[in-house]
Each structure stands twice: as C-alpha cells, then as structure tokens.
Amino acid sequence: MLIQLLIQHPQALGPVLQHTPVWVWGLFAALLALGLSQVRTRSVSALRMALMPVAMAGLSLWGTASAFGSSPLFVYVLLAWAVCTALMLGLMAPLAAPAGTFYDATSRRFHMPGSWVPLVLILGIFLTKYIVGIELSMQPPLARDGQYTLIVGGLYGLFSGLFAGRAARLWRLARRPGARPAATAFNT
Hints:
The protein has helices spanning 2-8, 13-18, 22-37, 46-68, 74-92, 117-138, 146-175; strands at residues 42-45, 102-104, 109-112.
C-alpha cells in the first residue's frame, strides 16, 4: 500500500511528509531521544524500568485504538494484540538478562549495558503507527479488512510483548538482589 506507492512513485514521499502534523515530529524526536538513551550503559531506578514497558504498551494500544477503534473488527484486533503480547512475553521472560546486567538492592537500581534493541522497538511502534495512519487516511476501508487489521494488531502486540518480556527478565534479578551480573552473551 504505502510502501508500494512510494516504490512506484517516490515523488509521493514529499506530500506525505508535508501533510504530517508538526506534533508527530515532536513525538518522533522524543521517542528517538528515549531510544538513544538506551544505547549507553546506564543505571535505572526500578520505577523507571517498570514505566518503559507500560508506556510502550500504552503507545501500541493507542495505535491500535486510533486505527481500528471504530472498526467492527476492533474486538478481534484487541484479541490479536493480546495474544501476540502474551506470546512474546512468554518467549522473552524466561531468557537470561543481558550480560553485565545486575540489580543493586541498596539503591534499588538496575545497572544495564547499552543496547540498540529498545531503540529499534520504539521506532518500530512509531513507524507502525505512522504508516498505518497514512494508509488508513489514503484507504479508509482497510480498517474493515480482517487480514490487515489482525496483522497490525498482532504487530503492535509483538512490540508490547517484547518490552514486557525484557522487563520481566530484569524483575527476576530484583527478586534475588544478591545475584551477580548476568553471564549470558546476548544483549537483547
């Protein structure tokens, strides 16, 4: 749809970007800054660590509701979101925390190595919302297309489940505060 249009008519990109509301670029800049802050080694409070997956789930639910809230398929879209969120949470949560990650019970802070994964996930949610918004404005009947709505709802759910699963791995460290830094080689 949008990608096909841009491949066949790259000159369409200018008008698409031109008609994007200014607030969208502000949101993009804020999310980009948030994602880039995750790239360096950092110490994060337990509260801040818990807020990230909640905020990203909220952003993905907002994308789902704003795109398909008036669709007769909305219940199914929410179900696809929930199933994919639970699936990714179930797959990610049992994995070990990234190497070098530990929880300091005294300061109630998580110490984490930098990772590009949160930036990719944040931008994935943003770009999904942006592209779906453009596609629905160009082709409103897509909001009633069962395949399209379920794919988008599922994609939002995958992003939410990945964030929740990453947080669940860290919470396991907090439940055993005397643990040494994680010894896995993967930094996801």
